[in-house]
Amino acid sequence: MTSIRFAQGAFLHARQIREWHRFAICAAQRRSLPPLGSLGRPCGIGVPQAAQVTNLCYALASAFASLHRANSTMRRIALLVCALALCMGARAEPTQDAKTLMTERGKLVLKEDFDQPPDKQWRIAAPEWKTEDGALKATHLPPIATNHGPVMEHRIALGNAIVQVSFKLEGKTRVVVHFNKKNGHLCRALIHPDAFYIIRRDSGGDKGIRLDTRETPIAPGQWHTLVVEILGTEMVASLDGKEVLVGTRDDLDQPKAALLLESAAGTAWFKDLRVWEAQANPNWAATKAKLLEARQVSK
């Protein structure tokens, strides 16, 4: 149904129909494809995604070309089928919800694919943020020793929550996902190229307390999925469904006022951010015991 809705949106205006027609004809004749920017946007297709489905366009347009001399009704039908298949092809790999451990997903309260520039609800606290290749690129501008790394904040009231985001590191870059309270920092998940932390930290000179740590290499140049869960006084973070951190602090149980994304010491990429209200998983006590036991065995 999602693909059908995207396709229907693409044909709301006659101008976009003409653009789809021009695109299909060019593809059928193996000419340079016109830009997909304006006609792809209603379907959620960005230029990077368009590149991924070019071969699909050519194949479908070949079928369209065979009908080019048919009557106008048949041509319109063929064009609609071509465009619908293009939309479905671009959306063939939807974002999957990663497994949660301590909590269960409730209401979805924030969804950002980051294939378009962030909207005005995101405040850029430090540069540089750019939308490229269907994702959000965060670059720490030199001099790195004195300039703060890129930070982006979204004000959102949260209690118990689940945050899922995909990220990619370049080189020695670090990535941080923060929860802030009303008057400053509260807690965070911190990704280094060779380690993974959850930290309770206030603003100012406080350097924070590591609640849990796993030393593990984070492969650069690859997409990873981070899931952070907060329920009352407990915090859980999992990386790619494999590495799991668990921490407890009485002062974690505070209202959250904002979510922040940050990187430092290079360039990082973000996409597919999701935030849900969280509900307790009744199996958490047993799951936690197994996790802690397995960690003891592995030492």
Structure description:
With 299 residues, the chain is α+β, with helices and mostly antiparallel strands. The protein folds into two domains: 89 residues, no CATH class; 178 residues, Sandwich (Jelly Rolls), CATH 2.60.120. The protein is 27% helix and 38% strand. It has seven helices and 15 strands. Strands 1, 3, 4, 6, 11, 12, 13 and 15 form an eight-stranded antiparallel beta sheet that branches. α1 crosses α6, α2 packs across α5 and α5 packs antiparallel against α6. The protein starts with a helix and ends with a helix. The N terminus is likely disordered.
Number of helices: 7
Sheet-strand content, in percent, reads: 35-45%
**Gyration radius, rounded:** 23 Å
Overall mean pLDDT: 79
Judged by helices, strands and strand pairing, the structural class is alpha+beta
The CATH class designation of the largest domain is Mainly Beta
Shape: globular
**SSE run:** HHHHHHEEEEEEEEEEEEEEEH
**Low confidence ranges:** 1-14, 27-54, 84-92
CATH superfamily of the largest domain: Exo-inulinase, domain 1
At the third CATH level, what is the topology name of the largest domain? Jelly Rolls
- Separation of the first and last Cα atoms: 49 Å
